[in-house]
Amino acid sequence: MVTGGDPVDASLMWNSRNGPVALRPVPTPFTAKDLPRRGVTHYALSFEPRYEQVFRGVWIDTSDADAVPVPAWADSRWNRAWIELRSIRLLHPGLAGGHATAARLYGLPLPNRMNSEDLHVSTGDMAMRIERPGVRLHRRRRFASEHIALLDVSLVTVPLLLVELAPDLTRDELVQLGDAAIGRQAGAPYISLDELKRSVLDHPRLRSRDKLEEALSLMRPTVDSPRETWLRLWLIANGFPEPAVHPAVPSEVGRCILHPDLGYPELRIAIEYEGDHHRTSPDAFAADIRRRELLEAEGWVVLRVAKRTDMGAFSRSLSTHMARRGGLQ
What we know:
The protein has 329 residues and is of the alpha+beta class. It is built from 13 helices and 16 strands. It folds into two domains: 10-218, no CATH class; 226-324, 3-Layer(aba) Sandwich (Endonuclease, Chain A).
């Protein structure tokens, strides 16, 4: 991960480390000093519906959007957070997106209770105050070395993001966020697990240190979704050995390497989490069937878990298969 004061090329960051970008029309914020160049009057700002005030002193023209490189997975809430962060930086250039706003722009998962529309920003200016509706300011003494440039805005680094969020998240929610940051959920890893551990635990006077240390010890790379993290942690919490994440299974029939979501290779037991897209996407559904056929051809048992699975029944089924194959004696 790039840290420090020198900004990096945003498009390079996304293309080289976090997957492709998509060019999408997004309005560009502007201030009163831009009115002559735009040929816009103060009267028009006040009475023409095409102009929307983002913050006092900053507007967008909803009918005039520029093609902006954004992550391919970005949605309308991502666009709004990006516009608001660009807008506040026109007034306070030293700010960076932090806390829940940074998590959203990074594409990292947060629990529903934290889906507030508030804009969270961070600064190293310990005397700064911002009194604007919907803006929440976080002051960090080490801020100067802990923010990066990303798609024409600045965000706190992923390690600082974990530090900021730790008091508000449970241990398992921190693991879900960390798995996403070191995995492929936003396209590619933002940071390695080792670097994340070093950077987080290096913070002096770290709040929630015990919770962070435990969460960091449970994070694993290559996880594809928060529900995969949830399932892995559920297995551990319910007395099962920790499963491998995406274990490699050579398939002679398919002449390929299979990677179930979770598994116990020594017992040849695979566990797949079936999200909604597995049911709604014909391609994903067909791939699931084919992968299961190939795993079973290699002598593996394949168990599936979905949102409405009876986890008590699943636990009994997994225990039975493990006992038959020499595990959980």
